[in-house]
Write a structure and sequence with these properties.
- There is one protein chain.
- This protein has about 80 residues and is of the alpha+beta class.
- It is about 60% helix and about 20% strand.
- The protein contains one helix and two strands.
- The chain has a two-stranded antiparallel sheet.
- It is rod-shaped.
- Keywords: Membrane, Transmembrane, Transmembrane helix.
């Protein structure tokens, strides 16, 4: 094996590992951003309902992430006609 072949092999292996690491980093970044957006949405939803209704929610983690919510809204007594 000559020097050129060895250099090309090393560069190829390093490039493949760097590409895989970049792909993992991008995926993790997307997941964190998605979780933050989902958390903000839930906080805003709970703030809207606070004191006027009841919110029940649950999460399932498995092959797919599932979030279920049940909102029971009761109108305020002081706004009734």
């Amino acid at each position: 094996m000559d020097i050129l072949t060895a250099v090309i092999t090393v560069i190829t292996v390093i490039s493949a590992h760097a590409g895989a690491l970049l792909a993992l980093w991008l995926r993790l970044r997307w997941q964190v951003r998605h979780a933050r957006i989902q958390g903000r949405y839930l906080v805003r939803l709970v703030q809207m309902v606070a004191g006027h209704g009841q919110l029940e929610w649950g999460e399932e983690h498995g092959k797919a992430h599932r979030l279920t919510m049940t909102l029971t809204y009761a109108p305020r007594a002081d706004t009734a006609p």
